[in-house]
Amino acid sequence: MPATPTKPRQKTKAATARQDILAVAARKMRQTGYSDMSLRDLATEVGMKAGSLYYHFASKDALATEVMCLGVEVVQQAVQTALAKQPDSTARDRLIIAMHVHIETLLSESDFSSAHIRCYPFVPDTVRNELTTVRKSYDKDWNDLICAFLDKPAEAAEVRHLRHALLGALNWSLEWFDPSRDDINAYVKSLAHLLPE
Amino acid sequence: MPATPTKPRQKTKAATARQDILAVAARKMRQTGYSDMSLRDLATEVGMKAGSLYYHFASKDALATEVMCLGVEVVQQAVQTALAKQPDSTARDRLIIAMHVHIETLLSESDFSSAHIRCYPFVPDTVRNELTTVRKSYDKDWNDLICAFLDKPAEAAEVRHLRHALLGALNWSLEWFDPSRDDINAYVKSLAHLLPE
DNA sequence: GTCTATAGACGGATAGAC
DNA sequence: GTCTATCCGTCTATAGAC
Protein backbone atom coordinates (compact mmCIF):
# COMPACT_ATOMS: atom_id res chain seq x y z
CA MET A 1 0.00 0.00 0.00
CA PRO A 2 2.12 2.83 -1.33
CA ALA A 3 1.90 6.38 -0.13
CA THR A 4 0.38 8.95 -2.48
CA PRO A 5 3.10 11.56 -2.74
CA THR A 6 1.16 13.64 -5.24
CA LYS A 7 -1.61 14.18 -2.69
CA PRO A 8 -0.06 13.69 0.75
CA ARG A 9 -2.81 13.06 3.26
CA GLN A 10 -0.62 12.86 6.32
CA LYS A 11 -0.41 16.10 8.24
CA THR A 12 2.87 17.87 8.53
CA LYS A 13 4.37 18.21 11.97
CA ALA A 14 3.52 21.89 12.00
CA ALA A 15 -0.11 21.33 11.09
CA THR A 16 -0.53 18.78 13.87
CA ALA A 17 1.06 21.03 16.46
CA ARG A 18 -1.11 23.91 15.30
CA GLN A 19 -4.25 21.91 15.81
CA ASP A 20 -3.11 20.73 19.23
CA ILE A 21 -2.51 24.31 20.25
CA LEU A 22 -5.89 25.41 18.97
CA ALA A 23 -7.70 22.61 20.79
CA VAL A 24 -6.04 23.28 24.11
CA ALA A 25 -6.47 27.03 23.69
CA ALA A 26 -10.18 26.57 23.06
CA ARG A 27 -10.58 24.52 26.22
CA LYS A 28 -8.66 26.99 28.33
CA MET A 29 -10.50 30.00 26.92
CA ARG A 30 -13.79 28.32 27.68
CA GLN A 31 -12.73 27.51 31.21
CA THR A 32 -10.71 30.49 32.34
CA GLY A 33 -11.40 33.24 29.84
CA TYR A 34 -9.14 35.06 27.45
CA SER A 35 -6.83 37.04 29.70
CA ASP A 36 -6.46 34.30 32.29
CA MET A 37 -5.25 31.91 29.64
CA SER A 38 -1.50 32.00 30.12
CA LEU A 39 0.61 31.04 27.16
CA ARG A 40 3.01 29.31 29.52
CA ASP A 41 0.32 26.99 30.83
CA LEU A 42 -1.09 26.50 27.37
CA ALA A 43 2.31 25.53 26.00
CA THR A 44 2.92 23.13 28.88
CA GLU A 45 -0.32 21.29 28.20
CA VAL A 46 0.51 21.04 24.54
CA GLY A 47 3.95 19.74 25.45
CA MET A 48 6.12 22.65 24.41
CA LYS A 49 7.56 25.89 25.74
CA ALA A 50 5.86 29.27 25.57
CA GLY A 51 8.22 30.74 23.02
CA SER A 52 7.56 27.91 20.59
CA LEU A 53 3.97 28.95 20.19
CA TYR A 54 5.15 31.95 18.22
CA TYR A 55 6.32 29.71 15.43
CA HIS A 56 2.67 28.84 14.83
CA PHE A 57 0.86 32.03 15.77
CA ALA A 58 1.88 35.65 15.52
CA SER A 59 0.41 36.62 18.87
CA LYS A 60 -2.02 35.64 21.58
CA ASP A 61 -4.62 37.75 19.82
CA ALA A 62 -4.13 35.89 16.58
CA LEU A 63 -4.50 32.56 18.35
CA ALA A 64 -7.67 33.67 20.11
CA THR A 65 -9.08 35.01 16.86
CA GLU A 66 -8.61 31.68 15.16
CA VAL A 67 -10.14 29.76 18.05
CA MET A 68 -13.20 32.00 18.10
CA CYS A 69 -13.56 32.01 14.36
CA LEU A 70 -13.56 28.22 14.30
CA GLY A 71 -16.13 28.37 17.07
CA VAL A 72 -18.65 29.94 14.72
CA GLU A 73 -17.71 27.84 11.72
CA VAL A 74 -18.08 24.56 13.59
CA VAL A 75 -21.64 25.29 14.70
CA GLN A 76 -22.60 26.84 11.40
CA GLN A 77 -21.32 23.84 9.49
CA ALA A 78 -23.10 21.40 11.79
CA VAL A 79 -26.38 23.25 11.45
CA GLN A 80 -26.12 23.61 7.69
CA THR A 81 -25.27 19.94 7.26
CA ALA A 82 -28.19 18.84 9.39
CA LEU A 83 -30.57 21.11 7.48
CA ALA A 84 -29.31 19.87 4.14
CA LYS A 85 -30.36 16.36 5.13
CA GLN A 86 -33.97 17.47 5.67
CA PRO A 87 -34.67 19.64 2.62
CA ASP A 88 -38.41 18.93 2.61
CA SER A 89 -39.26 19.62 6.23
CA THR A 90 -41.42 22.54 7.30
CA ALA A 91 -39.99 25.89 8.32
CA ARG A 92 -40.92 25.06 11.88
CA ASP A 93 -39.10 21.74 11.80
CA ARG A 94 -36.06 23.33 10.21
CA LEU A 95 -35.92 25.89 12.99
CA ILE A 96 -36.15 23.19 15.62
CA ILE A 97 -33.42 21.18 13.92
CA ALA A 98 -31.18 24.23 13.99
CA MET A 99 -31.89 24.76 17.68
CA HIS A 100 -31.09 21.16 18.43
CA VAL A 101 -27.83 21.04 16.53
CA HIS A 102 -26.72 24.43 17.82
CA ILE A 103 -27.07 23.55 21.48
CA GLU A 104 -25.77 20.04 20.98
CA THR A 105 -22.59 21.29 19.34
CA LEU A 106 -22.22 23.91 22.02
CA LEU A 107 -22.57 21.53 24.94
CA SER A 108 -20.93 18.36 23.83
CA GLU A 109 -18.72 18.79 20.85
CA SER A 110 -17.01 22.05 20.70
CA ASP A 111 -14.88 23.99 23.14
CA PHE A 112 -14.39 26.41 20.28
CA SER A 113 -17.99 27.56 20.19
CA SER A 114 -18.32 27.95 23.93
CA ALA A 115 -15.01 29.75 24.06
CA HIS A 116 -16.37 32.18 21.49
CA ILE A 117 -19.58 32.82 23.38
CA ARG A 118 -17.95 33.26 26.75
CA CYS A 119 -14.92 35.30 25.69
CA TYR A 120 -16.43 37.56 23.07
CA PRO A 121 -17.47 40.33 25.46
CA PHE A 122 -13.98 40.74 26.89
CA VAL A 123 -11.68 40.09 23.99
CA PRO A 124 -9.65 43.02 22.54
CA ASP A 125 -11.38 45.18 19.96
CA THR A 126 -8.99 44.04 17.26
CA VAL A 127 -10.10 40.46 17.78
CA ARG A 128 -13.78 41.34 17.84
CA ASN A 129 -13.40 43.24 14.60
CA GLU A 130 -11.96 40.22 12.85
CA LEU A 131 -14.95 38.16 13.91
CA THR A 132 -17.69 40.35 12.51
CA THR A 133 -17.83 38.62 9.14
CA VAL A 134 -18.33 35.07 10.43
CA ARG A 135 -20.73 36.24 13.09
CA LYS A 136 -22.88 38.10 10.59
CA SER A 137 -22.90 35.11 8.33
CA TYR A 138 -24.22 32.81 11.05
CA ASP A 139 -26.70 35.45 12.20
CA LYS A 140 -28.03 35.55 8.66
CA ASP A 141 -28.62 31.81 8.68
CA TRP A 142 -30.83 32.21 11.72
CA ASN A 143 -32.57 35.20 10.29
CA ASP A 144 -33.45 33.23 7.19
CA LEU A 145 -34.80 30.34 9.25
CA ILE A 146 -36.93 32.63 11.35
CA CYS A 147 -38.13 34.71 8.42
CA ALA A 148 -39.40 31.56 6.80
CA PHE A 149 -40.98 30.37 10.02
CA LEU A 150 -42.75 33.62 10.91
CA ASP A 151 -43.38 34.51 7.28
CA LYS A 152 -42.22 38.05 7.89
CA PRO A 153 -39.67 40.27 6.14
CA ALA A 154 -36.07 40.00 7.29
CA GLU A 155 -36.08 43.47 8.78
CA ALA A 156 -39.15 42.91 10.97
CA ALA A 157 -38.59 43.48 14.66
CA GLU A 158 -40.35 40.19 15.42
CA VAL A 159 -37.67 38.33 13.52
CA ARG A 160 -34.82 39.97 15.39
CA HIS A 161 -36.58 39.51 18.71
CA LEU A 162 -37.22 35.82 18.20
CA ARG A 163 -33.66 35.29 17.04
CA HIS A 164 -32.23 36.98 20.11
CA ALA A 165 -34.64 35.16 22.41
CA LEU A 166 -33.85 31.74 20.96
CA LEU A 167 -30.11 32.19 20.80
CA GLY A 168 -30.21 33.59 24.33
CA ALA A 169 -32.14 30.59 25.61
CA LEU A 170 -29.72 28.26 23.81
CA ASN A 171 -26.41 29.95 24.59
CA TRP A 172 -27.32 30.53 28.21
CA SER A 173 -27.27 26.76 28.66
CA LEU A 174 -23.52 27.11 29.05
CA GLU A 175 -24.24 28.55 32.47
CA TRP A 176 -26.46 25.83 33.88
CA PHE A 177 -26.45 22.68 31.79
CA ASP A 178 -25.22 19.63 33.68
CA PRO A 179 -25.07 16.55 31.44
CA SER A 180 -25.50 14.26 34.43
CA ARG A 181 -28.87 15.83 35.21
CA ASP A 182 -30.13 17.62 32.13
CA ASP A 183 -31.17 16.33 28.75
CA ILE A 184 -30.70 18.26 25.53
CA ASN A 185 -33.69 16.67 23.83
CA ALA A 186 -36.00 17.54 26.66
CA TYR A 187 -34.83 21.14 26.79
CA VAL A 188 -35.16 21.68 23.06
CA LYS A 189 -38.62 20.14 23.21
CA SER A 190 -39.55 22.64 25.90
CA LEU A 191 -38.29 25.49 23.76
CA ALA A 192 -40.07 24.19 20.67
CA HIS A 193 -43.27 24.16 22.69
CA LEU A 194 -42.89 27.90 23.18
CA LEU A 195 -42.77 28.66 19.47
CA PRO A 196 -45.87 30.39 18.10
CA GLU A 197 -48.63 28.65 16.09
CA MET B 1 -32.37 73.65 60.73
CA PRO B 2 -30.10 71.83 63.19
CA ALA B 3 -28.35 68.63 62.41
CA THR B 4 -29.64 65.47 64.04
CA PRO B 5 -26.57 64.15 65.79
CA THR B 6 -28.42 61.24 67.36
CA LYS B 7 -29.26 59.84 63.92
CA PRO B 8 -26.59 61.18 61.57
CA ARG B 9 -27.78 60.85 58.00
CA GLN B 10 -24.71 62.18 56.33
CA LYS B 11 -22.40 59.44 55.16
CA THR B 12 -18.97 59.14 56.66
CA LYS B 13 -16.02 59.77 54.40
CA ALA B 14 -15.24 56.09 54.37
CA ALA B 15 -18.75 55.06 53.39
CA THR B 16 -18.78 57.49 50.49
CA ALA B 17 -15.42 56.36 49.20
CA ARG B 18 -16.51 52.73 49.51
CA GLN B 19 -19.54 53.36 47.37
CA ASP B 20 -17.51 55.24 44.78
CA ILE B 21 -15.12 52.32 44.56
CA LEU B 22 -17.95 49.83 44.21
CA ALA B 23 -19.63 51.85 41.48
CA VAL B 24 -16.49 52.24 39.40
CA ALA B 25 -15.53 48.60 39.97
CA ALA B 26 -18.93 47.47 38.74
CA ARG B 27 -18.59 49.51 35.57
CA LYS B 28 -15.10 48.24 34.88
CA MET B 29 -16.01 44.62 35.57
CA ARG B 30 -18.92 44.90 33.20
CA GLN B 31 -16.76 46.44 30.51
CA THR B 32 -13.44 44.67 30.78
CA GLY B 33 -14.04 41.61 32.93
CA TYR B 34 -12.66 40.63 36.29
CA SER B 35 -9.01 39.97 35.61
CA ASP B 36 -8.58 42.89 33.22
CA MET B 37 -9.80 45.27 35.85
CA SER B 38 -6.58 46.72 37.24
CA LEU B 39 -6.72 48.14 40.73
CA ARG B 40 -4.38 50.90 39.64
CA ASP B 41 -6.80 52.08 36.94
CA LEU B 42 -9.74 51.62 39.23
CA ALA B 43 -8.12 53.72 41.94
CA THR B 44 -7.23 56.45 39.45
CA GLU B 45 -10.82 56.74 38.31
CA VAL B 46 -12.02 56.93 41.88
CA GLY B 47 -9.40 59.59 42.57
CA MET B 48 -7.04 57.71 44.83
CA LYS B 49 -3.98 55.48 44.71
CA ALA B 50 -4.05 51.71 44.42
CA GLY B 51 -2.80 51.07 47.94
CA SER B 52 -5.63 53.12 49.44
CA LEU B 53 -8.21 50.67 48.17
CA TYR B 54 -7.02 48.20 50.76
CA TYR B 55 -8.30 50.42 53.55
CA HIS B 56 -11.81 49.68 52.24
CA PHE B 57 -11.50 46.17 50.89
CA ALA B 58 -9.37 43.26 51.99
CA SER B 59 -8.54 42.13 48.45
CA LYS B 60 -9.57 42.33 44.82
CA ASP B 61 -11.61 39.19 45.37
CA ALA B 62 -13.49 40.74 48.25
CA LEU B 63 -14.27 43.81 46.17
CA ALA B 64 -15.50 41.72 43.27
CA THR B 65 -17.59 39.59 45.60
CA GLU B 66 -19.36 42.63 46.97
CA VAL B 67 -19.98 44.07 43.50
CA MET B 68 -21.47 40.83 42.26
CA CYS B 69 -23.49 40.27 45.40
CA LEU B 70 -25.04 43.72 45.04
CA GLY B 71 -25.72 42.84 41.43
CA VAL B 72 -28.18 40.16 42.50
CA GLU B 73 -29.67 42.12 45.35
CA VAL B 74 -30.41 45.15 43.19
CA VAL B 75 -32.41 43.16 40.65
CA GLN B 76 -34.07 41.03 43.24
CA GLN B 77 -35.15 44.07 45.20
CA ALA B 78 -36.46 45.82 42.10
CA VAL B 79 -38.48 42.77 41.06
CA GLN B 80 -39.89 42.15 44.54
CA THR B 81 -40.87 45.79 44.91
CA ALA B 82 -42.64 45.84 41.57
CA LEU B 83 -44.49 42.63 42.37
CA ALA B 84 -45.56 43.90 45.78
CA LYS B 85 -47.33 46.78 44.05
CA GLN B 86 -49.48 44.37 42.02
CA PRO B 87 -50.58 41.79 44.58
CA ASP B 88 -53.81 40.94 42.77
CA SER B 89 -52.51 40.34 39.27
CA THR B 90 -52.56 36.94 37.63
CA ALA B 91 -49.62 34.56 37.75
CA ARG B 92 -49.01 35.32 34.11
CA ASP B 93 -48.95 39.06 34.66
CA ARG B 94 -46.67 38.68 37.65
CA LEU B 95 -44.24 36.69 35.56
CA ILE B 96 -44.27 39.34 32.84
CA ILE B 97 -43.72 42.09 35.40
CA ALA B 98 -40.68 40.21 36.70
CA MET B 99 -39.31 39.82 33.19
CA HIS B 100 -39.78 43.49 32.52
CA VAL B 101 -38.14 44.73 35.69
CA HIS B 102 -35.31 42.22 35.44
CA ILE B 103 -34.22 43.26 31.97
CA GLU B 104 -34.85 46.93 32.63
CA THR B 105 -32.60 46.91 35.69
CA LEU B 106 -30.00 44.96 33.78
CA LEU B 107 -29.87 47.28 30.81
CA SER B 108 -30.36 50.72 32.20
CA GLU B 109 -29.82 50.90 35.90
CA SER B 110 -27.23 48.59 37.17
CA ASP B 111 -23.64 47.93 36.21
CA PHE B 112 -23.63 45.64 39.22
CA SER B 113 -26.05 43.14 37.74
CA SER B 114 -24.42 43.04 34.35
CA ALA B 115 -21.00 42.74 35.97
CA HIS B 116 -22.31 39.72 37.84
CA ILE B 117 -23.71 38.05 34.76
CA ARG B 118 -20.67 38.65 32.61
CA CYS B 119 -17.97 37.91 35.15
CA TYR B 120 -19.47 34.97 37.01
CA PRO B 121 -18.08 32.27 34.71
CA PHE B 122 -14.49 33.45 35.12
CA VAL B 123 -14.29 34.67 38.68
CA PRO B 124 -12.20 32.67 41.20
CA ASP B 125 -13.90 29.73 42.90
CA THR B 126 -13.73 31.45 46.26
CA VAL B 127 -15.78 34.33 44.90
CA ARG B 128 -18.31 32.05 43.23
CA ASN B 129 -18.77 30.14 46.44
CA GLU B 130 -19.66 33.28 48.34
CA LEU B 131 -22.34 34.07 45.79
CA THR B 132 -24.28 30.82 45.98
CA THR B 133 -26.65 31.99 48.68
CA VAL B 134 -27.86 35.16 46.95
CA ARG B 135 -28.04 33.41 43.63
CA LYS B 136 -30.16 30.59 45.00
CA SER B 137 -32.44 33.06 46.68
CA TYR B 138 -33.12 34.89 43.42
CA ASP B 139 -33.50 31.63 41.55
CA LYS B 140 -36.15 30.64 44.04
CA ASP B 141 -38.11 33.81 43.35
CA TRP B 142 -38.27 32.87 39.70
CA ASN B 143 -39.10 29.29 40.45
CA ASP B 144 -42.04 30.40 42.56
CA LEU B 145 -43.30 32.71 39.83
CA ILE B 146 -43.07 29.99 37.21
CA CYS B 147 -44.56 27.30 39.45
CA ALA B 148 -47.59 29.49 39.95
CA PHE B 149 -47.80 30.27 36.27
CA LEU B 150 -47.47 26.71 35.00
CA ASP B 151 -49.32 25.26 37.99
CA LYS B 152 -46.70 22.56 38.35
CA PRO B 153 -44.61 21.39 41.32
CA ALA B 154 -41.34 23.21 41.97
CA GLU B 155 -39.28 20.17 41.00
CA ALA B 156 -40.89 19.70 37.58
CA ALA B 157 -38.49 19.79 34.67
CA GLU B 158 -40.84 22.16 32.84
CA VAL B 159 -40.36 24.74 35.55
CA ARG B 160 -36.60 24.57 35.43
CA HIS B 161 -36.61 24.64 31.65
CA LEU B 162 -38.83 27.68 31.39
CA ARG B 163 -36.77 29.47 34.02
CA HIS B 164 -33.54 28.84 32.16
CA ALA B 165 -35.10 29.77 28.83
CA LEU B 166 -36.54 33.04 30.11
CA LEU B 167 -33.47 34.13 32.05
CA GLY B 168 -31.35 33.18 29.06
CA ALA B 169 -33.47 35.27 26.72
CA LEU B 170 -33.34 38.17 29.17
CA ASN B 171 -29.69 38.04 30.20
CA TRP B 172 -28.49 37.53 26.67
CA SER B 173 -29.75 41.03 25.89
CA LEU B 174 -26.47 42.25 27.34
CA GLU B 175 -24.86 41.01 24.14
CA TRP B 176 -27.06 42.74 21.59
CA PHE B 177 -29.29 45.40 23.10
CA ASP B 178 -28.66 48.86 21.70
CA PRO B 179 -30.82 51.49 23.43
CA SER B 180 -30.68 53.73 20.35
CA ARG B 181 -32.34 51.04 18.25
CA ASP B 182 -34.07 48.56 20.55
CA ASP B 183 -36.98 48.95 22.90
CA ILE B 184 -37.34 47.06 26.16
CA ASN B 185 -41.12 47.13 26.10
CA ALA B 186 -41.27 45.70 22.61
CA TYR B 187 -38.84 42.90 23.42
CA VAL B 188 -40.63 41.90 26.61
CA LYS B 189 -43.90 41.91 24.69
CA SER B 190 -42.37 39.55 22.15
CA LEU B 191 -41.23 37.24 24.93
CA ALA B 192 -44.59 37.37 26.68
CA HIS B 193 -46.18 36.33 23.40
CA LEU B 194 -44.15 33.13 23.55
CA LEU B 195 -45.48 32.10 26.95
CA PRO B 196 -47.87 29.13 26.88
CA GLU B 197 -51.68 29.38 27.15
C1' DG C 1 10.29 23.35 14.95
C1' DT C 2 11.56 23.74 19.45
C1' DC C 3 14.61 25.30 22.87
C1' DT C 4 16.83 28.72 26.48
C1' DA C 5 17.08 33.05 28.25
C1' DT C 6 15.50 37.30 28.97
C1' DA C 7 13.61 41.85 28.04
C1' DG C 8 10.09 44.96 29.47
C1' DA C 9 5.81 45.90 31.35
C1' DC C 10 2.26 45.36 34.65
C1' DG C 11 -0.24 42.87 38.18
C1' DG C 12 -1.88 42.47 43.48
C1' DA C 13 -0.51 43.28 47.85
C1' DT C 14 2.01 45.29 52.07
C1' DA C 15 4.53 48.60 55.35
C1' DG C 16 4.93 52.69 57.29
C1' DA C 17 4.87 57.88 56.95
C1' DC C 18 1.61 61.55 57.35
C1' DG D 1 -8.02 57.70 55.15
C1' DT D 2 -4.72 58.35 51.85
C1' DC D 3 -0.04 58.44 50.22
C1' DT D 4 4.68 56.74 48.76
C1' DA D 5 7.58 53.19 47.92
C1' DT D 6 8.38 48.71 46.98
C1' DC D 7 8.31 43.51 46.95
C1' DC D 8 7.61 39.79 44.16
C1' DG D 9 5.17 37.41 40.93
C1' DT D 10 3.41 36.74 36.16
C1' DC D 11 2.64 38.05 31.71
C1' DT D 12 3.53 38.48 26.34
C1' DA D 13 6.90 38.67 23.20
C1' DT D 14 11.62 38.43 21.12
C1' DA D 15 16.49 36.85 19.93
C1' DG D 16 19.39 33.51 18.86
C1' DA D 17 21.26 28.67 19.64
C1' DC D 18 20.40 24.01 18.11
From TrEMBL, chains A, B:
Pfam families: TetR_C_24, TetR_N. PROSITE patterns: HTH_TETR_2. InterPro entries: Homeodomain-like_sf (IPR009057), HTH-type_TetR-like_transc_reg (IPR050109), HTH_TetR (IPR001647), KstR2_TetR_C (IPR041490). Residues 15-75 form the HTH tetR-type domain. The keyword Transcription regulation applies. It comes from Falsiruegeria litorea. Residues 38-57 bind DNA. Keywords: DNA-binding, Transcription, Transcription regulation. This is TetR family transcriptional regulator. It comes from the Bacteria. Gene3D superfamilies: Homeodomain-like, Tetracycline Repressor, domain 2. SUPFAM superfamilies: Homeodomain-like. The keyword Iron does not apply.
